[in-house]
Amino acid sequence: MEEKQVKKLEEETKKLLDKFSKALASVKSEGKEWNVERELDRRKEKEGKECNPTFRKIFLENAPQHDDEFIIAEKKTW
User: Fold this and answer.
1) What number of CA atoms fall less than 13 Å from residue 67's CA on the CB side?
2) CA angle 46, 48, 52 (to 5 degrees)
3) Please, are residues 78 and 70 in contact by the beta-carbon 8 Å criterion?
4) To bridge 73 with a disulfide, which of 9, 56, 64, 78 should be the other Cys (CB 3.0-4.6 Å)?
5) Model-level pTM?
6) Residue 9's pLDDT band (boundaries 50, 70, 90)?
7) Is the distance from CB of 64 to CB of 78 less than 8 angstroms?
8) What is the secondary structure of 3-35 as a DSSP string?
9) Residue 19 has what pLDDT?
10) Could you say which DSSP state residue 36 is in?
């Protein structure tokens, strides 16, 4: 796609999202909470399976910041 087309598409997308956002803001919830309540809210635990031993290493290497055990990140930044 040409740069001109990309820019036009980005502008159209922004307009569409802004329009949708405004329309969504006007929706009245009538004081209702939008939570889903279920009788069962937990899964049944099972035996589990053996994980791929290299998964943790690959996953941590993919993270911008990590230590030996955990990803170090701020919410919504990765």
Assistant:
1) 3
2) 165
3) no
4) 78
5) 0.36
6) very high
7) yes
8) HHHHHHHHHHHHHHHHHHHHHHHT---TT----
9) 93
10) -
